[in-house]
Amino acid sequence: MSKVLQISNLHVAIDGKEILKGVNLTVRQGEVHALMGPNGSGKSTLSYALAGHPSYEVTEGSATLDGQDLLALDADERAKAGLFLAFQYPTSIPGVTVANFLRHAVSNVRNPDRKEGEELISMREFRKELREQMDVLGMDPEFARRYLNEGFSGGEKKRAEVLQLAMLRPAFAILDETDSGLDIDAVRVVSEGVNKVAEREKTGVLVITHYQRILNYIKPSFVHILFGGRIVEEGGPELVTLLEEQGYDWVRSKYPDAAKDEDELEQQQNSPSGQLTF
User: Fold this and answer.
1) What is the pLDDT of residues 192-201, one digit of tens each?
2) Which residues contact residue 119 at a Cβ distance below 8 angstroms, ignoring those fewer than 6 apart?
């Protein structure tokens, strides 16, 4: 049976300000979902809250992965449970090579009971698998010897995230605006990599975006519109086309209460003290 990521009535606050106001979402392993919404609507808040970022406080509701309470787990335990987050702005780690980072990550995810200092996955096994995955993704082997994200272009950072996805084999992958800062060629290359991994591993994918372009390559069967901190519309790919043609004005007209909340969220994000991504 496929695993299920279940989000129920999720409320999340930042610095005491409520951003998510009761999100309900179900993703099954092997499904591709898109979560769309304007900037500041709470899309990134959902991804960071699920991944366990300490600045995002869950005040109500639940999130489970195959029945296991995600919210009771530390961030590393959520990864071991099968959740992967591709960041909108990946962090550079000078002095740590891509290969070294991945060897430790793979060892910990595949052996959740491993203690620090215990044996890692064998170098021979790891190198063989890493080369295979880089071949599939069309990546130069020299890439693995570079420091993680140090001096990487936007496209290289996102391809590094796809390589992590391929090596960690999560049950669910959240792609937080993976297309951000990429040109159309880079979006295509990264998307093709995600598709290859997701198809092979039957990964459940949640693509978070406010543009259609990445959805031309990673094609969702389910589309959700997040507006004012809650999901107000759900459907299929036709919603992507509607948003591309009409923008969010029709959403604002149809859901005036959510529109008020959306305006408040925008004001909070644009305030001098608004440092975190919503």
Assistant:
1) 999 999 999 9
2) none
Reply yes or no on domain 4-92+170-270 having CATH 1.10.3720.10.
no
Q: Which residues are CB-neighbours of 37 under 8 A, at least 6 positions away?
A: 43, 210, 225, 226, 227, 248
Q: How many CB atoms lie within 10 A of CB 175?
A: 28
Q: In whole angstroms, what is the distance from residue 236 CA to residue 116 CA?
A: 45
Which residue from 147, 157, 221, 151 is spatially nearest to 193, judged by alpha carbons? 157
CB 215 within 8 A of CB 207: yes
- 22: tokens are 């009761």
Burial environment of residue 212 by CB neighbours within 10 A (0 to 12, 13 to 18, 19 or more): middle
Q: How far is residue 219 from each of residues 154, 182, 236, measured CA to CA in Å?
A: 22, 18, 10
Distance of CA 244 to the CA centre of its chain: 22
pLDDT tens digits, 100-143: 999 999 999 999 989 888 899 999 999 999 999 999 888 999 99
Q: Which of 203, 208, 136 is nearest to 178 (CA)?
A: 208
pTM: 0.93
Task: Name 73's Cβ contacts closer than 8 Å, sequence gap at least 6.
Answer: 52, 81
CA-based angle 45:111:133, to the nearest 5? 75
Judge contact between 157 and 188, C-beta under 8 A: no
Tokens 């499904």 sit on residue: 31
pLDDT (tens digit per residue) in 224-249: 999 999 999 999 999 999 999 999 99
Tell me how far apart the alpha carbons of residues 262 and 260 are, in angstroms, rounded to a whole number: 5
Q: Classify the phi-psi angles of 256: left when phi > 0, otherwise alpha if psi is within -120 to 50, otherwise beta.
A: alpha
